[in-house]
Amino acid sequence: MGGFGGHSWGMGFGMGWLWIIGIVVMVAVIWLIIQRFNRNDQDFQKPSNTALDILKERYARGEIDKQEFEERKNNLL
Hints:
The chain is mainly α. Helix content is about 75%, strand content about 0%. Helix 2 (about 50-60) runs antiparallel to helix 3.
């Protein structure tokens, strides 16, 4: 029997490393999950409408007539 009180010093040292490795693995898994959710949030964000898109929507709803639509479209382009 080696070590102190019948216990090997290597066992205690090894158990310490297992805790550290376990914590590192848990942190890595949590980080990957967070990254995955952030990526999904960015994928679902609706792109903002351009001024021309808004103008087309207003024309389609009848808020402006064809003449005003054409004038504003020419100003934008």
